[in-house]
Design a protein that fits this description.
Layout: H1 2-22, E1 30-35, H2 45-57, E2 62-67, E3 83-86, H3 98-109, E4 113-117, H4 128-134, E5 148-154, E6 168-172, E7 185-192, E8 197-207, E9 210-215, H5 221-224, H6 227-240
Parallel strand pairs: 1-2, 1-3, 3-4, 4-9
Antiparallel strand pairs: 5-6, 5-7, 7-8, 8-9
Length: about 250
């Protein structure tokens, strides 16, 4: 009887192990840290943040965690993320600490991704390296005309982020006269009646071993749900994080 019971237990163990081996392992979602919590009153970050999260999570590829405190950048927990997404401007708030700055730069230089959204180009204006990190920033001479419709043109149709994207109309703010000397790869652009120039709307650059994607569209939740904006955000995040096989060198990836 004992021998029979032992054989039965052994068979059950083998069967259970075989089933476990055949069961597909759940794919790890890429972890995105969305840093938000402050902006000028005209920018409803409490509305745009959920819209950004929704756009990324509906792909089934991302787990988006939101922090409304930029001091999270001081944490060693950054190492567990693949991409940092900034929806933040420190309006009437101090600069981030030196430790937070060091951590953010180290995060990107090490080969991870950064996505800068809308008025994040204005953040931490006293931090000189931030201009190099995101390529272009908003200064006192920057601006835009009244919010309205304008034509957005694809400037680099061969890039992974813009593949299949055609020129489209946006109802948004058209940022103009951003400044910066770092070479950038402009993906989409638009002519500004305010500056009388063609302005970059979304662009990429490399920083150390990492990748940076910037998009200045997205004034409100409605603008963030424009299908073309959603594609740019989703693919830009994939590219910045080197996901879905996007493993080429940042300056070569198309």
């Amino acid at each position: 009887m004992k021998w029979t019971l032992w054989i039965a237990c052994l068979i059950t163990t083998f069967a259970t192990t075989a089933v476990a081996a055949d069961k597909p392992q759940a794919k790890r979602l890429s972890r995105i840290l969305l840093v938000t919590g402050r902006d000028v009153p005209a920018h409803p970050w409490r509305e745009t943040t959920p819209a950004l999260r929704e756009a990324l999570e509906k792909t089934g590829k991302f787990e988006v965690l939101v922090s409304e405190e930029p001091a999270v950048l001081e944490s060693s927990a950054l190492a567990s993320y693949d991409v940092i997404l900034l929806n933040y401007y420190n309006w009437e708030r101090p600069e981030i600490t030196d430790q937070a700055k060091e951590n953010l730069l180290k995060f990107v230089k090490s080969g991870k991704g950064l996505v800068s959204f809308h008025f994040s180009v204005r953040a931490w204006g006293k931090w000189a390296e931030y201009r190099k990190l995101i390529g272009r920033i908003w200064v006192d001479s920057s601006g835009h005309g009244p919010r309205g419709t304008f034509k957005v043109k694809v400037a680099d149709a061969d890039h992974y982020i813009t593949q299949g994207l055609t020129d489209f109309e946006a109802d948004d703010e058209l940022y103009a006269k951003l400044i910066g000397d770092t070479p950038i790869n402009v993906l989409v652009e638009a002519y500004s009646e305010w500056s009388k120039k063609t302005e970059p709307i979304a662009w990429t650059l490399d920083y150390g071993q990492g990748r940076v994607f910037n998009i200045v569209l997205g004034h409100d939740a409605k603008a963030c749900r424009l299908p073309q904006f959603v594609q740019l955000l989703q693919r830009g995040t994939v590219w910045a994080g080197r996901l879905d096989g996007q493993t080429e060198n940042p300056s070569q990836a198309k």
